[in-house]
Request: fold
Amino acid sequence: MELSRFRIGIIGGGNMGRAIIKGLCRSQPAPAILAWDALESTRRQLEDEFPLSIPTDNQELVAGCEIVILAVKPQVIDPVMAEIADRLTPDHLLLSIAAGVPCRRLEKPLLQEVPLVRVMPNTPALINRGISALAGGRHATTAHLETAETIFAVLGETVVVPESAMDMVTAVSGSGPAYIFLVIEALLDAAVGLGLGRDLARKLVVETMLGSAELVKTSGRHPMELKDMVTSPGGTTIAGLAELEKNNLRHAFNQALQSACRRSRELGG
Ligand SMILES: NC(=O)c1ccc[n+]([C@@H]2O[C@H](COP(=O)([O-])OP(=O)(O)OC[C@H]3O[C@@H](n4cnc5c(N)ncnc54)[C@H](OP(=O)(O)O)[C@@H]3O)[C@@H](O)[C@H]2O)c1
Reply:
């Protein structure tokens, strides 16, 4: 599907809004892009950096495009929806990336049957290596979901899930990068503890993480099988793994995901 068929408006020019704009600009042929941010200086920056137009406000943005992407913080979602609700029609497609904000809350102020898709991206989207989970609202059809997937493909992989899975998705891939960063940091410090220089340790750890993830992805083999391949009897790897099991790494990740999922439910209300 060619995105150039659409005029796409992005509300919120922060980290995620900019990543989406950058990705859309790269797609060939690129769609017409409109963007609005509360801060005048951010609007000027966006205009200088990207081929897009800045309307006079959020309402003019909605009137000037078919697809509207809400990329503001969850705390300002309700006031932004109050501003634009009466401008949104069934011919629009509304996409929201606000973490934890359910479709029903976004749909509440709408006057018409507006198709809505809720999206949970993650920070590797900043380098097009993200994964975005998408869930349709009450009036979103398969075609709307396909359009939304085409848009979020500019940030990496996409997957369609039922909205009931969104809190679990948030715990796994939304919060996930932070867990991986912590693991990288811990391995890095441990490597420095062994006596390796920090630059060498960083290279060894990061490439090991990337290569291992890529191997799981491309081989399609179970991680346990791949783990067994590097675990020789009485060798170094089994000695290291035994320590990780003794220190309950599995339990720690299990508890972390349960806790993040619970928190996501609480925040969603
Ligand atoms: N970053 C992530 O890892 C991640 C992952 C998944 C989902 N998300 C979701 O993505 C959304 C954006 O996150 P972010 O990290 O990009 O936040 P951010 O950097 O704070 O960007 C939000 C932008 O929206 C602007 N804004 C505030 N009120 C506005 C209004 N009324 N109209 C237009 N723009 C307005 C903000 O301006 P001011 O700075 O002036 O307030 C800011 O530039 C959030 O809802 C978050 O939950 C983020």
Q: What stands out?
A: The mean pLDDT is 96. The beta strands are 7-11, 32-36, 67-70, 93-96, 116-120, 130-136, 156-160.
